[in-house]
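It would be a great kindness if you could assist me with a short task in structural biology. The full record is reproduced below for your convenience:
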Amino acid sequence: MTHDDADAVVIERTFEAPVHAVWQLWTDPAHFREWFGPTGVTVPVAELDLRVGGRRLVGMEMETPDGPRRMWLGGEFQEIVENERLVYTEYVSDEHGNQQSPADSFTAHATTEVRVEFEAVGDRTKMRLTHVGIPSGSPGAIGWTMAFEKLAALIGPTHEPTT
């Protein structure tokens, strides 16, 4: 997928945990549910079939003035290099993973691409996220920033996820 910088969110963060621990927080559904999504959003559903061609289905739940609302994101893993790189597509879906119109979502693109690169820096992890199809400064970009704040808080100074 090609893009210009105006059409992509790019965020770099360094986390106080080794690469294998940050990788696990991205790839283990139980851990992923703990941090993914903006502040105030819970993730009751995270199905991650971690193989090239494997399906992703994430259900995020938030409170609205009209009551609870669930938003579904589907996609497919495109590239997996353990502890180094994770690439997947993402789109608005229904609860079964069927792609829906993006008309009521945070992007005008039917399908976006998420690329996450991990680099060991001693006992820490430098992570670079590029989400193509979500403009910088958009609600989607703000959501990623909030999610990474939750991820950093979850990791803390000594967090080491277990299997």
Q: What stands out?
A: Residues 139-155 form the longest helix (17 residues). Residues 102 and 110 are 6 Å apart (CA to CA). Strands lie at 8-15, 42-48, 55-64, 67-81, 85-93, 112-121, 124-132.
